[in-house]
Amino acid sequence: ANFQNADLGSANLQNAYLGFANITETQIKSVCFWDKAIYEGKWSIKQQAIVAIEPDNTEYIEKLKQDKASNPQKAFDCSYWQEDP
């Protein structure tokens, strides 16, 4: 997918596979649960789903967390995606 110039504000990326997405670090960090997405993944026949390749996926997420230059100017309200208590 090509997300160049896309406004992904408050989208939920939990468990989304973004391995082939054309997306900037700032766009990634502008959405809800970006740290729960899969950036380094592979298809699992057993699980019939994309699964993270570790430790590569976790290392990429940690790299993004430490890159303060890619932080978005505005934080989004992710309460829409929170489960009710």
**Beta-strand content bin:** 5-15%
C-alpha-based Rg, rounded: 13 Å
Number of strand segments: 2
Placed side by side, the strands forming the largest sheet appear as 1-2
Description of the structure:
By secondary structure, this protein is α+β, with helices and mostly antiparallel strands. It is globular, with a radius of gyration of 13 Å. It contains 2 helices and 2 strands. It has helices spanning 25-28, 56-66, and strands spanning 41-44, 49-52.
Topology:
Blueprint lengths: L24 H4 L12 E4 L4 E4 L3 H11 L19
Antiparallel strand pairs: 1-2
Key attributes of the depicted protein:
85 residues, 9% strand, 2 strands, 18% helix, alpha+beta
Quick synopsis:
With 85 residues, the chain is α+β, with helices and mostly antiparallel strands.
